[in-house]
Each structure stands twice: as C-alpha cells, then as structure tokens.
Amino acid sequence: MRLPPTTDSEDRRVAVLRDVWAEFYAYVRRLLPGEYHLVEDFMQEAAADLTRYWRDRGEVTRNQAAAILKQAAKFDVINHRNAKAHTTISAGTIDDELMLTAADPNSEHEILAVMGRIDHDRLIHLLPRLLTDRQRQIVVAVDVEGLTQSRAAQQLGISVRGLQKARDTALTRLQHHLTSPPAPHAEQMSRPNREVPQ
C-alpha cells in the first residue's frame, strides 16, 4: 500500500506540469486540427492520467512527464476520432500526422531535420513506403514524443539495440531519399496536367 503523496511531491508534480504545459498544448493541438475547442479537455484528461501515474509509481522527470502526457493524449485522440468517424483510425495514421507536422529542417532531432528538408507533398506520398510501421513508431516515440530510447524500446517490446538499429535504418533511408531525385512518375502524379486541349 502506498502512502498518500507528500505536499512536496505534489508541488513538484504541479511544477513539472507547469513546465511542460506549453509544449504539451502544441502537441495536442497538432493532434486535433480544426477541433481546438477539445484541446483543453484532452489535456486535462492526460494530466489526470499523469497524476495517477505519479501517485501510483512515484515521481518522474520533466521529459518522462511530457512523454506520459503525449501518449495519454494520443490514445484519447485515437478513440475520439474512431468514435467520431465510425471507422478505425490506426495509431500509424496518427504517427504519420505527428511526424509530418514535427518535420522541421531546423529541428535538433536529425530524423525530423532530414524529413523537414524533403518536399512536404513528396513526403506525404512516400512516407508509408519509405519507413516501416515499426520505424515510424520509433521515430514518433523518441523524436516527437521525447521518450528515452530505453523507455521507447520497453514500450514497443523490443531491445534498445533493436530500436537503435531500426532508427538508424530509418535515418539512412530518409537521407538517401533526400539526396535522390524524385522518380519521373512521382513528379507526374504530383503535378496536374496543365496542357490546354486544342
């Protein structure tokens, strides 16, 4: 049986939440394009999940708290979208959206920086073929959600070495794609025919 949290522990939890709240807001807002009225609700639900985690398992660092909040919100958004659309939206779909919105040529994460240098339309079209589902899960967990490699590996049920290898392979494939010219048929597909019939 766990003892009730101390006031100091609760103060630290509140300080961690306050520290990560703006970053978390931006993350949830990316998950809910056009539904900004729901952002605060999802954030509060995730904060309640973090509070339960903190009280049941003990204190966590700022980065761990951010990762817990983001994962809780992502799970809730998947459930919300599935209920709203009466279809099944996969975590892979959400992961792709997160990677596309986090792709930035100036990112401190090398994978997101490489993705940011690839033409956005080209990346949307090729991302599912460029990276495996597992590689996308790893990139989102480590580079977008900020999990440590060991925690991401544990959560995904793989070894840290397996995670590192898959992440390195993803980076290599993205870098190779960045340096290779677009395939002629890909260009034709992305550009509408502008010829005027005679």
From TrEMBL:
* Protein name, as recorded: Sigma-70 family RNA polymerase sigma factor
Which residues belong to any copy of the RNA polymerase sigma-70 region domain?
Answer: 131-161
The record's Pfam families line, in alphabetical order, gives:
Sigma70_r4
The organism named in the record is Kibdelosporangium philippinense
Stretch list, region Disordered: 178-198
Report the InterPro entries cross-referenced here.
RNA_pol_sigma70_r4, RNA_pol_sigma_r3/r4-like, WH-like_DNA-bd_sf
* Recorded superkingdom: Bacteria
